[in-house]
């Protein structure tokens, strides 16, 4: 999965120009309703991010020049990611940021938000389709997924996420099985998993998200 598959397109992104004054930038951010927006130059090249709180602090706490340009207040000049980058790369870089700007050869093409990242994990959990969500553990870390897939042959797995990666003692898998199951079907499933060496740590029914 590439960042370009998840980004909010440039057409929908509020920006300020690096030649805007502090008051102009603050006015744009206030109207946008966001706490931070990307900064671009006249050619739409990414120049960093500007925060509403930093503009306010500069103007009203530091008695800054209202007509000054944004040079001293722009942050994260190096914090952007190419649209061809992987989802994992984006996940590692977005941690401390409200969003990460996405570029193509330096030009802003959009932003990646935490909501988009969370959506990927919701999909991995099977939240969008609903079903029976299980957290399963096994003491056999190596080959666990293959063995689990064989055990669940015939079931439609809507989402799967592995935990405890790298552990040689225990592994957990969170997965969602499609459809409704009766109490008898759940007990049959539990017995099948336990016979294969798995333990159900948690079970809940997920409603389909519309």
TrEMBL record:
Keywords: CBS domain. InterPro entries: CBS_dom, CBS_dom_sf, Lmo0553-like. SMART domains: CBS. Pfam families: CBS (PF00571). It comes from the Bacteria. Residues 8-66 form the CBS domain. The keyword DNA repair does not apply. CDD domains: CBS_pair_SF (cd02205). This is CBS domain-containing protein. It comes from Sporosarcina jeotgali. The lineage of its organism: Bacteria, Bacillati, Bacillota, Bacilli, Bacillales.
